[in-house]
Amino acid sequence: MPDTAPLVAPPIGLPAEAGSDATRGTRPWALGVLAAVIVAASVWTLHNYLPALAWAAIFAIALWPLFQWLHNHTPRRGQHVLVPAVVTVAIALLFFLPLALLALQAAREAHGVLDWVQTVHDQGLPVPEFVSKLPFGADRVTEWWQNNLASPGDASHLAARVNRQTVVAVGRQAGAYLLHLVVLFGFMLLTLFFLLRDAEPFVDQLRRASRRAFGPGGERVGAQMIASVRGTVSGLVFVGLGEGVAIGIGYVVAGVPHPVLFGAVTAVAAMLPFCGGIPIVIAAGLLLAQGDTLWAVLILVYGFSVTFIADHFIRPVLIGGATRLPFLLVLLGILGGIESWGLLGLFLGPALMAALVLLWREWSADPRAHAAEPH
Questions:
Q1: Residues near 187 by Cβ (< 8 Å), separated by ≥ 6?
Q2: The model's pTM
Q3: What are phi and psi of 232, to 5 degrees?
Q4: CA distance 334 to 169
Q5: Chunked mean pLDDT (size 10), the chain, 375 residues
Q6: Within a 10 A sphere around the Cβ of 313, how many other Cβ atoms?
Q7: What ranges do the domains of the chain cover?
Q8: Using an 8 Å Cβ cutoff, are 27 and 15 in contact?
Q9: DSSP 3-state assignment of 20?
């Protein structure tokens, strides 16, 4: 009987025994084209969920030191599943608890808001005292207010001018977008759990693939981008939370309405460049509307002093120290990243700048310096 070869295909990447030299020459190119097509098709299939995957990677990188600490201080039976689950649930609560508190506060005050709206409809809304104290435009604002809000029923006529169909359409779009965000957040949490659970083998695979594709330089670029993400998280998120706590204490002392809510909004806004002052100005405006002019000025001075110190002294040290980048490049990376990638660009922009600077330093370095380094 003639020998029959087993019908088993050789592994991808290993040359099969071909019958001609032409086949041997074209097979690597064919495999490359096939791999490119598979990667492109996979990216296109997952393109709606790529932001969730990217956010999961960012959270995994940022939480890795905490995850390792919990992993080392947990009994062996709970290391594989329990620790990733605890970290994932903590991230979910970190986002859902403030939203739940905000919804609860809104529900408590809904009755008061309805009563206020009915009072405005029946009696009108008199011109506040602070309008007359405005440094400019006081007369125009007073005239507009008296014509549109001061008399009974004026607010209803003003609201009737709004296109209700447009409002309904905007509400539907906002609801659909909110549902989309909730779905993406759920997939992000699921991805984060599996990333943390299978972190060690996944990291080893990334290192081997990076070395095989780019050599030792690829691993250095990856390490620099990871350090950039951690530094950006520390510089933006943690500093923003610190600003929210510090300025929130000022809200309490100054008598700002709902100081806890304003402190939380300030913390979130402080994570974004040049946005931390917006809730401070709103809080000062509320104090001014209550007639507390001195406290309004003090909260403005105090709030902007805290944000100035955080933005110009603390953040450059945390972000620039981790990434070895000038703060100007960090700022440009953040702003350009937000413009190009949305909120994801807060972390992706500085990471790309860090990788770019590392590549430039390696390419522009003196070859004799590398030759003199001990191997």
A1: 49, 52, 53
A2: 0.67
A3: -70, -40
A4: 33
A5: 48 46 59 85 88 89 86 77 89 81 70 64 67 68 69 60 63 79 89 89 83 76 82 82 91 87 86 84 86 88 91 78 73 84 83 83 67 50
A6: 9
A7: 48-197, 199-361
A8: yes
A9: coil
